[in-house]
Amino acid sequence: MPLLVGLALLAFWLYCLFDAITTPDEETRNLPKLLWVLIVVLLVPVGGAFWLLLGRPSGPRRPGSLFSDDGLSRPEAPRGPDDDPEFLKELDRRLRDED
Fold it and tell me: Looking at the keywords, is Transmembrane present (predicted)?
């Protein structure tokens, strides 16, 4: 049981550290990014909680977020050629012309 708690704390700390490092400088709240990274590293058990509550950007506006800037719609994912109706029409036309 103590091993599981330790692994959970390690996972939480690593998540918070990675999140603090990858957050753009201009999006951190209350303190500069470098100070937040130091807080997460030096105050292992509570530094991550401080980061999530006080330093992490609020809202889903970060790059790679599931939502766009309006918070409502998901950005359009790239489509492959087999999902493009125009490409499929052109391919069908080419195949018919070869026969």
Answer: yes
C-alpha 57: how far from chain center:
12
DSSP string, 11-29: HHHHHHHHHHHHS-GGG--
- The Cα 16–Cα 38 span in angstroms is 12
pLDDT in tens, 71-98: 555 667 777 777 788 888 888 899 998 7
Q: What would the two tokens of residue 37 be?
A: 């990274």
Are 21 and 14 in contact by the 8 Å Cβ rule? The answer is no
The three-state (H, E, C) secondary structure of 32-44, written as one string: CHHHHHHHHHHCH
How many alpha carbons fall within 13 Å on the CB side of residue 18?
6
Class of residue 25 by CB neighbours under 10 A (exposed 0-12, middle 13-18, buried 19+):
exposed
